[in-house]
Amino acid sequence: MSTPKDQVDRQLIALLQANARESTANLARKLGVARTTVVARLARLEAEAVIVGYTARLGSEAMDRGVQAYVGISLSPKAQREVIKKLSRLPELRQLASVSGEFDYMALLRAETTMRLDALLDEIGEMEGVIKTTTSVVLALRVDRSA
């Protein structure tokens, strides 16, 4: 993966992180460059996989609905590929990271209800190759710097 080339690239990325739907004309105005410059830089950043997609972020009211949990998952070595495939199919899975320490993976789940979270945890625990899971339910989000 490439990195932003200069300060204009970094500012462009920051503006898109704040509002990915900002028009190229507005981006150009804010950056003090031509609209064609913004279009060319976006194309390059996308081609170099610096920017890999655009997304919608939910407001705090929508995010407050439901329950979020971190799940530490220990797997048998030969089952990792298949378990990752199954986990990837869960719409409630927000992130899956391989980690060092006690667990092999850390999953971030968001479910509509605690009952759905309970069912998800049962589903994960019953997957062939899952040795152990440990869950921590998020009570409050104190700092969120995610893009």
UniProtKB/TrEMBL annotation:
Provide the GO biological process annotations. response to amino acid
The UniProt entry's GO CC annotations, sorted and at most eight, read: cytosol
Q: Which InterPro entries match?
A: AsnC-type_HTH_dom, Dimeric_a/b-barrel, Tscrpt_reg_AsnC-like, Tscrpt_reg_AsnC/Lrp_C, WH-like_DNA-bd_sf, WH_DNA-bd_sf
Q: Does the keyword DNA-binding apply?
A: yes
Sequence ranges assigned to domain HTH asnC-type in this UniProt record: 6-68
Give the record's keywords alphabetically: DNA-binding, Transcription, Transcription regulation
Q: Which SUPFAM superfamilies match?
A: Dimeric alpha+beta barrel, Winged helix' DNA-binding domain
Tell me the superkingdom of the source: Bacteria
Which GO terms fall under molecular function for this chain's record?
sequence-specific DNA binding
One matching Pfam family, short form? AsnC_trans_reg
DNA-binding recorded as keyword: yes
The name of this protein is: Lrp/AsnC family transcriptional regulator
Recite the lineage of the species. Answer: Bacteria, Pseudomonadati, Pseudomonadota, Betaproteobacteria, Burkholderiales
